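Example for tutorial group B:
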């Protein structure tokens, strides 16, 4: 199906009115790095497109109790934001830096990376580990939902037909001793799609784990938080026995599949090895990255 018409609203109110009128027949285009490829390959249909690049939805700013990342903030904006260049947010910057090429990151938006709904979306795991929320707007209402409830199935999110993402919200974390890491595995050195990725966060209080957050991508139909593993570690010292128990618990929370890129056994091995590495080797100086 060919695109019949492209709209370029100048205000959020106009954009929401178009969504209310056209619903599923209207596709939102921000950077277009995923949507235009899908259209060209015939993997999605869009009788109508709406280019939202003219809306006032860019910028990354600090609010009283959260950091707001506008829907038009690019992955380059995330990489270069001084607000995110500190713990525990740095692994989000690392993840953004591993999406595509510099040219893609200059156009692609953080919100768009989430709205694809694909389990390999690199920024999904650090955002899950940061307890991120998404703000959704329509002519009917504005609502916020946790990112843990945003992904429903591959290429399917909680966005309703008349809604659009306006912001990604990160809670402000109190000062503390944080360790974070992002790791992505692919089949070549550059410009690769993840066959596995993991975001890990620990807040330590002396020898005790005060806060634990882990998320994995391409280990289930949607990116997943490891809630049971986190609960097991919280309030305890990282002994070898506890780490072994955490690895066994992790295996009950993920359900990898075999694809043409990797087997489920290989993905499980990666999950076990990289989580073990994070829990046993301080990641100081680690920039995260690919393990091809």
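The residue assignment follows.
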């Amino acid at each position: 199906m060919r695109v019949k018409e492209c709209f370029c609203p100048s205000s959020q109110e106009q954009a929401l009115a178009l969504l209310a009128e056209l619903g599923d027949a209207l596709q939102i285009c921000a950077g277009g790095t995923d949507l235009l490829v899908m259209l060209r390959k015939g993997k999605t249909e869009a009788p109508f497109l709406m280019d939202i690049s003219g809306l006032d939805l860019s910028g990354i700013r600090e609010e009283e109790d959260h950091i707001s990342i506008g829907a038009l903030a690019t992955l380059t904006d995330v990489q270069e934001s001084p607000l995110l260049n500190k713990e525990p947010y740095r692994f989000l910057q690392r993840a953004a830096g591993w999406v595509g090429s510099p040219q893609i990151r200059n156009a692609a938006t953080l919100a768009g990376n989430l709205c694809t709904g694909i389990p390999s979306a690199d920024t999904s795991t650090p955002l899950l580990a940061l307890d991120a929320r998404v703000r959704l707007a329509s002519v009917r209402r504005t609502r916020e939902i946790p990112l843990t409830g945003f992904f429903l199935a591959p290429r399917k999110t909680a966005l309703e037909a008349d809604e659009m993402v306006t912001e990604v919200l990160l809670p402000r974390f109190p000062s503390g001793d944080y360790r974070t890491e992002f790791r992505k595995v692919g089949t070549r050195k550059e410009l690769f799609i993840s066959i596995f990725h993991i975001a890990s966060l620990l807040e330590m209080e002396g020898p005790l784990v005060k806060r634990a957050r882990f998320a994995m991508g391409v280990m289930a139909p949607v990116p997943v938080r490891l809630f049971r593993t986190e609960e097991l570690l919280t309030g305890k010292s990282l002994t070898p026995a506890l780490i072994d128990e955490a690895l066994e618990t992790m295996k009950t929370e993920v359900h990898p599949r075999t694809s043409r890129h990797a087997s489920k056994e290989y993905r499980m091995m990666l999950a076990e090895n990289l989580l073990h590495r994070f829990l046993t080797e301080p990641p100081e100086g680690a920039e995260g990255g690919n393990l091809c």
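The longest helix spans residues 264-280. Compare this with the pattern of hydrophobic and polar residues in the output above.
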